[in-house]
Design goal:
The structure is a single chain. This protein is an all-alpha fold. The chain has helices at about 30, 35-65, 70-105, 110-145, 150-165, 170-180, 185-210, 220-245, 260-290, 295-310, 315-335, 340-365, 370-375, 380-410, 415-440, 445-470.
Length: about 475
């Protein structure tokens, strides 16, 4: 009995030989209706982000109820610091996504596979050989930058050190997800994301609370569950990658020598995105420093950690998913010589983003206390600050959603410098400048910080739209 190959699987010839690669890519992305192409890549990615985001919500909810708001603040500040490192390595995957989308659009599978292999090799050297030991040693100093209280610091230090040392498995997951999505397969990353989340949730329930002979690790248990789950999934995914079951594959016996031509392009397109991410997260760390200078610093940091890094993610999960889909659609169509379809894809994605952001923003306005209560945010001061923050974020989310759709269009076509300049202005210079000016004159309060965040998001939206509409991305060339 024969069976029909599943989506993303290469049909086999008699004798086990693979069919020609030309049949491996989904050509509807560059030939079919543009709205369908965006949605085909967007919905699995959006769902994956929502499901994956549950692990962060569960972490915060369990830690908030079993440890207290100091644990919530510890996870929040730790992730803000850790993301500075993570996004730098992730920038290689942005560069990889540009190459994969262009080559997939041009139907050149060998170049796709080579780009993925070199991204993996480069990320492994940087992550394991450099950033892990440096991050471990500098963790105490980094926590000082955000003015973490003694209680928050005690919870945060083991958490962030664990993340620095053992997070490479998660990096592999993000790399494969980005590569497959850029090649037109968003369903496989969804399946991987579901398995990662289920495994992570199971481990966190055991490690945070304790079970039988396993002690309760509290906040540290959340980090342990995350890195163990990532490591297990990375091993399974690597086996599938070499097994030839995906649209992207690595052949056994392939040379693992560095290909400097490919690596240069990874940095050419990826480094601006990495600097952008580092700048944004440094801005976040400095913003936490401003929050830490308030009279109610621990309460404000807890409200920020839950309101901005968790509840606001209900908007950013879907918007980032759409950004990834938009990048793939824009990049593949530019690679296929159809730039007008790239423009149409960005417009379609932005409409979906706005609808989702507006719906979630309404929940922020109508149900702030129940939403905060899920995370054990019952302290009156924390609840008041969190409710105030969610009111600002209900509006801010709409502008972020549109900005991310246009950012996807820019990055997917290879214009990664534009989003860098925009982020420095809108996420670093402007909001931090506002906080500094208010602190130096009228005296800084929490609502000033929330307003600065909103102004930054509005500015990012306006500048991203203007940059994309200039159309300079049409002339960007990717070397084969």
């Amino acid at each position: 009995m024969t069976r029909k190959p599943s989506a993303g699987e290469i049909p086999s010839r008699p004798g086990g030989a693979s069919a020609r690669h030309e049949r491996s890519f989904d050509r509807s992305i560059v030939e079919g209706p543009i709205g369908s192409a965006v949605w085909k890549l967007a919905w699995p990615t959006m769902l994956q982000n929502v499901i994956g985001g549950l692990q962060g919500i569960v972490d915060h909810a369990m830690v908030g109820n079993y440890v207290g708001y100091a644990g919530n603040a510890a996870i929040g500040v730790s992730w803000q610091i850790f993301l500075v490192v993570q996004v730098f390595i992730g920038s290689l995957f942005t560069g990889m996504g540009v190459l994969v989308a262009r080559f997939a659009g041009a139907n050149e599978p060998k170049k796709v596979n080579r780009a993925v292999q070199q991204a993996f090799l480069t990320a492994a050297v940087i992550s394991v050989g450099i950033l892990a030991p440096v991050g471990y040693l500098l963790a105490p100093t980094l926590l000082d930058l955000v003015h973490a209280t003694d209680a928050v610091r005690a919870e945060a230090l083991p958490y962030i050190r664990t993340m620095f040392l053992f997070s490479f498995g998660m990096m592999v997951f993000f790399m494969l997800g980005g590569a497959l999505r850029s090649a037109g397969d968003a369903k496989t990353p969804l399946r991987l994301g579901i398995w990662l989340t289920v495994l992570n949730l199971a481990l966190n329930v055991i490690l945070i609370r304790g079970a039988g002979p396993i002690p309760a690790f509290g906040t540290l248990g959340a980090a342990m569950g995350t890195v163990i789950a990532g490591g297990i999934l990375a091993v399974a995914a690597a086996a599938a990658l070499f097994g030839g079951r995906w649209v992207i594959r690595l052949e056994r016996g392939t040379s693992w020598r560095p290909d400097w031509k490919v690596i240069r392009q990874l940095f050419r397109f990826g480094l601006p995105a990495g600097i952008q991410g580092v700048a944004m997260n440094i801005g976040g760390v400095i913003l936490l420093g401003f929050i830490g200078s308030l009279a109610t610093s621990a309460e404000a940091q807890a409200a920020y950690s839950v309101g901005y890094t968790q509840l606001f993610s209900l908007i950013t999960w879907t918007s980032v998913g759409l950004m990834g889909a938009t990048a793939a659609v824009a990049g593949q169509n530019l690679g296929a010589g159809r730039p007008e379809r790239s423009v149409q894809g960005v417009h379609a994605a932005s409409k979906i983003s706005v609808a989702v952001a507006a719906a979630v923003g309404l929940l922020f306005l109508l149900l702030p206390r129940p939403l905060l209560g899920v995370f054990g945010m019952n302290d009156p001061v924390v609840t008041a600050l969190g409710t105030q923050l969610l009111a600002f974020l209900s509006l801010s989310g709409v502008f972020v959603a549109v900005a991310l759709a246009y950012t996807g269009g820019l990055q997917g076509t290879g214009d990664t410098r534009g989003p860098l300049y925009i982020s420095v202005i809108s996420q670093l210079v402007l909001p931090l400048g506002i906080c500094w000016a208010v602190q130096a004159t009228a005296g800084l309060e929490a609502h000033h910080i929330w307003l600065a965040i909103l102004i930054g998001h509005v500015t990012r939206c306006a500048l991203s739209m203007a940059r994309f509409r200039r159309g300079a991305w049409r002339e960007i060339v990717v070397e084969g």
